[in-house]
UniProtKB/TrEMBL annotation:
This is Peroxiredoxin Q/BCP. It is an enzyme of class 1 (oxidoreductase). The keyword Oxidoreductase applies. Residues 3-178 form the Thioredoxin domain. The keyword DNA damage does not apply. InterPro entries: AhpC/TSA, Thioredoxin-like_sf, Thioredoxin_domain. One of its GO terms (molecular function) is thioredoxin-dependent peroxiredoxin activity. Its EC number is 1.11.1.24. It comes from Rhodanobacter soli. Keywords: Oxidoreductase, Peroxidase.
Amino acid sequence: MRLFAPEPAPALDLVDIHGQPIMTSSRGRLTLLSFFRDAACPFCNFRIYELTHRHAELAERGLDIVAVFSASQADVLRFAGHRPRPFQIAADPTSSAHELYGIERSLWRKLKAIVTRAPTLLKGMRLVGLAGLNTGNLMPADFLVNEHGRIVEAYYGRDAGDRIPLERVEQFLSRPRARRAA
């Protein structure tokens, strides 16, 4: 079941790839919580690449980024975590966190992304190789969580490559504190 603003962000019982707990609620920080598909997903790895390159400017504006993959720890380390990342990345091998946040599955929307987002698919395939062809049907989702642990925006991907636009994240960071809390 999908989550909506201004619900509290459900607590995650996960640790990142370095053994640190994932904290998303009542932290006093702004958070972009991104749910990813399989660790070999080309679309997902391209987004990790984008977030890595934009991290310094987003962090300077007060944003924490948490990436959660529906994959084993070994697969996350092999693909998304094989290079140092400046934000937390976690494995969710049972997809329990994905279920808690209402992440959806759709073969049709996966195929739609392959056809309509071919340039991004190819960029992502350069990062993961042929392993990117064998991914599941989970859809991506992103949540902007305010400093009070409440969801400000829930963005469920319309297809396997659809993510919250980074412009929306920047708008979230630009809002006055009082409006983010509402």
